[in-house]
Amino acid sequence: MEKLLAAVGLLGFLLAAVKREGLLLLIPAISLLAAIAAESLKLGYPPLFSGYYAIALFGALFALSGFSLKANPKFVGTVGAVVTAILLALNPQVKEIPPIVRTPLFFIHVGTAMVSYSVFAVAAIYAVWKGASKEEIEPLTVAKWGFWLFTLSLWVGAVWAFLAWGDLFPVDPKSLLSLGFWLYCGALLHLPFDSKLQRVKEIGVVGAGLYVLFLFLGVNFLLGGSHGF
Q1: DSSP calls for 150-169
Q2: Domains of the chain by residue range
């Protein structure tokens, strides 16, 4: 069932990209959220510690963000299809985790991080589309929403880590690169105050979108650490 819902999500993203119809982004959003809901009912809690369902959640939120923010369906569908295609190669089986991890703070931490990732990815699409079409879209405004969500995720994650492990800032690749991303985005939001740097703010937003994809997919799957899948 999980693979079937992932395939439906992939098809929805491809249709949105080909037909350039934003409404079709609701197909992957609904199918991927359905997969997460089904597994949550089976386990009794959201399986957000699983690489498979973390990607599914990102794909669903990315589709919803693209739809609600009216981003270009061609770009959203293409990026979403690439991300969702990864699900077809992964094992959806979920391993049991210790009760200490299954706390509300953990799910808030992961959930806000995923929403911020999807918002940054949409902001990057806005930046690319603005450069190509000269549309009056301000990608930095969208990135600002992602920044505050990411800040909330970092604070909640720090509190959760302290309560669970006695450590506010576990030193591992994800923690260090997340701090680097937060500093990068903080600097990015200050670009409009410098007239000489305003011209590169779209490039900076695209860089934030690429950083997010690496922070989520590259770090969690390749570099491991306490955040590894």
Answers
A1: HHHHHHHHHHHHHHHHS-SS
A2: 1-97, 103-229
Between 73-85 and 51-68, two packed helices, what is the crossing angle to 10 degrees? 170
Residues of the chain with pLDDT under 70: 98, 130-137, 167-170, 193-198, 220-229
Dist. CA 103–CA 124, nearest whole Å = 32
Alpha-carbon distance of 153 to 108, in angstroms, equals 7
Question: Which tokens in the block code for residue 24?
Answer: 């079709």
Give the number of other CB atoms < 10 A from CB of residue 93: 10
pLDDT in tens, 171-183: 777 888 888 999 9
Question: How crowded is residue 66: how many other Cβ atoms within 10 Å of its Cβ?
Answer: 28
Element spanning 101, H or E: none
Per-residue pLDDT of 64-94, as tens digits, reads 988 888 888 888 899 899 989 988 888 877 7
Long-range contacts of 198-207 (CB under 8 A, 24+ apart): 201/139, 201/140, 202/127, 202/128, 202/130, 202/131, 202/139, 203/127, 205/123, 205/124, 205/126, 205/127, 205/139, 205/140, 205/143, 206/124, 206/127, 206/128
Contact 107, 46 (CB under 8 A): yes
Tokens representing residue 170 in the block? 């576990």
